[in-house]
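Repro:
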Amino acid sequence: MRKIPSYVWIIITLVVSIAFLLILVANASTKPTRIEQNLYDMAQSLNMDIDKFKTDFKSDSVRKAVEDEKNDALSRLGNNAATPAIFIDGQLYQQDYTNLQAVLNDLVKDRKDTDPKLKVEEFSDYYCSHCLIFETIALNIKKDTVLMEKIDFEQKHLPFLNASSILYAYAAEATKLQGKFDEMSVKLFEDAQNTQVELPASYEIK
């Protein structure tokens, strides 16, 4: 019986080792990070379609939407990121944001149903403590049905404070596609800042 040369065994060993390493790398690349798994768990706790959430979370469209909002905010703010950044009909709101609901009601009180809606935009980062305070205000504004008939209120992303900020923004944007943006935002704020969001009376978290 012909003996297999030692160099052949060396080559076989190298090939098997490389194949094993490639399998390990492939498995590592598909395994979610701790932060990603945490976000998946939050989405699942809201009874969302978790497979759709994972797909949307990693999709180019969600990432582009977040990047576009971030770049839009930075452009308007002269590249000086600050949150919450609130714009009313394109103008930066520079008063006390805790009074925003009353200010908006005053601005729209004389508007007719045929008038265009007042455009209100809020740019935030889930690691921003002031944004956390504003979240309760935003939820109260959304519960003000009379006010909401006269304004177009959009919550947008300006992730810049933490390395994980961008992932939280992706998660919120992916959640929006399943109609659970408000509920997920509450969880994201609570998770990012390890505190509880004060919810408006009777506000439902599903």
